[in-house]
């Protein structure tokens, strides 16, 4: 399996700089996508989940969901209230969706601080996931062509052993809402110069990782315009769109 093959690859400085660049490009794409029609894109290596147990167990990793305010000057400021609400509804809706489908979902206690290994692989997943956005759903790498061939590396099996799970569901989501000053500036810029300024956007993705091999066996990209994680109805809509093609056991 090619791609990001080990945690050590992520921990060296060149890889960190590269991942920040890729995530920066993805963030810019989210802001631009605020006026683009909703769209989801899915890639998968498997049709059904496999396990030696009676039913495959899926570990829901702590959702990497963050909301920001886009200021008049174009800077982004974290909004902890929006982020907390979005993470809460994200977990609730994933749990409800899994129950409807009869999936065996393991949820890490949100009141406990994440372990070092979960944190490290969440960061690695962010880097790999944003690379997939750029180099699979964007300009595909010549070495891969149409093959969906990405991995977090076999070291992720330690998470499976720790939690007794066969697969891990990782997520990444960013939301940006314009401040009043940003909206006013956008209106003025449009009227005076004919230039439109970004007033925000949303976007994200989810990955299903085989905890025995580290392979990303399913990936879904969620573009702008599908739900709002900060409220129950919006979160339900977004999660069902994000996970609608998730393989079953």
List keywords for this structure.
249 residues, alpha/beta, 8-stranded mixed β-sheet
Verbal overview:
With 249 residues, the chain is an alpha/beta fold. It has one domain. 40% of the residues lie in helices and 21% in strands. It has seven helices and eight strands. Strands 1, 2, 3, 4, 5, 6, 7 and 8 form an eight-stranded mixed β-sheet that branches. It is globular. The two termini are 23 Å apart. Mean pLDDT is 83; it is low at 1-23 and 32-40.
Number of strands: 8
The structure class reads alpha/beta
Oligomeric organization of the protein chains: single chain
Number of domains: 1
Helix content: 25-40%
Global outline: globular
Please outline the major beta sheet.
8 strands, mixed
The CA-CA distance between the termini, in Å, is 23 Å
Overall residue-averaged pLDDT value: 83
Order of helices and strands: HHEEEEHEHHEHEEH
Compute the CA-based radius of gyration.
18 Å
Number of helical regions: 7
Low-confidence stretches: 1-23, 32-40
Proportion of β residues? 15-25%
Secondary-structure topology with pairs:
Elements: H1 7-11, H2 13-32, E1 40-44, E2 57-60, E3 64-70, E4 76-78, H3 80-101, E5 104-107, H4 116-135, H5 157-163, E6 167-178, H6 180-193, E7 200-210, E8 216-222, H7 232-242
Parallel strand pairs: 2-5, 2-6, 3-6
Antiparallel strand pairs: 1-8, 3-4, 6-7, 7-8
Helix pairs in contact: 2-4, 3-7
